[in-house]
Amino acid sequence: xxxxxxxxxxxxxxxxxxxxxxxxxxxxxxxxxxxxxxxxxxxxxxxxxxxxxxxxxxxxxxxxxxxxxxxxxxxxxxxxxxxxxxxxxxxxxxxxxxxxxxxxxxxxxxxxxxxxxxxxxxxxxxxxxxxxxxxxxxxxxxxxxxxxxxxxxxxxxxxxxxxxxxxxxxxxxxxxxxxxxxxxxxxxxxxxxxxxxxxxxxxxxxxxxxxxxxxxxxxxxxxxxxxxxxxxxxxxxxxxxxxxxxxxxxxxxxxxxxxxxxxxxxxxxxxxxxxxxxxxxxxxxxxxxxxxxxxxxxxxxxxxxxxxxxxxxxxxxxxxxxxxxxxxxxxxxxxxxxxxxxxxxxxxxxxxxxxxxxxxxxxxxxxxxxxxxxxxxxxxxxxxxxxxxxxxxxxxxxxxxxxxxxxxxxxxxxxxxxxxxx
Length: 422
Prior knowledge:
By secondary structure, the chain is of the alpha/beta class. It has helices spanning 2-13, 39-53, 80-88, 99-111, 132-135, 139-142, 185-192, 219-228, 264-278, 305-313, 324-335, 356-359, 409-416; strands spanning 26-30, 62-65, 70-72, 121-127, 149-155, 171-174, 251-256, 287-291, 294-297, 345-351, 372-379, 395-398.
């Protein structure tokens, strides 16, 4: 394995500056950061990806993100050495595997990728769990990933490729993670990267053929240069004095409606809109997203904007009775996590049901929310804002959910975010 990587490294080191290795694809490594893998196998996976990244030569065409964590996206500005450092320092997440999370994260990255030349996009999705719970809600994201070359890297022996053939017929197997790479990787990687041509092999050695011009290359020097000379990547400071708050210095909470009062298509329109809106904000530590009684993202979590967007897109539709009390309980619980609760909090609550059953017990919590600016986004035509005036007088109407955003959102969003309001 090491010798083959050296051979490939020599080939890539001699490549012309304008040649893409292995080809002109955008490549995504969607690694498995779930608790299904033990930590040793997680590290083996990340070391393998790190070694593969070292053999590629266009870092802006590389992406490495898990279902819950992320190391770099396409066009990150990092060099290969910095990417290797990030991959080496990657941490495992205690959450179960979710293919829906993986696919939603990938889709979010693709939607913001400037790919004017329609170059191939190849995604390697590492997966250790194909149980029903691990695959739940994946269909809706893969239906929007047509044209992407998806290859599943099957980790361990407790995975069933038959359950994934709806999404792709491309599989690479890694049943023994005591080995440093998947089975037949040297034969399959070119196709997995979306490249049209398979590298030629020497008939005498079985290894990839070397151009004559590389015969005197020094592989030790090349590897040293690629892995040790990079300056450590410095993340931009989040000091308020250096990065302005957009749209303002509010703590913003989005309460998603995933109840049985909203149809499937309208629900997906709702979360798509919320995800897009979050993309315009720039302080992720001040964003909270809840649904039902669950916190998809809490204030002061260590997620990037893109990771928050992915989590929003992965929210399931529970189909329970709508409960405003639960929405308000989540906000009260979040405020209780502060030693001194902030006084600039904006809660944007999506609501499709204003029946008595949906509102029961909610008003009792208003005594704890006196400093919170609540804005209701009323979904559809079967909601009655007059039944909500005891909670707030701030309403945004979204009567037609075939439209991509609520009525007058561009004019009303600034106030909904708690900006410019006394």
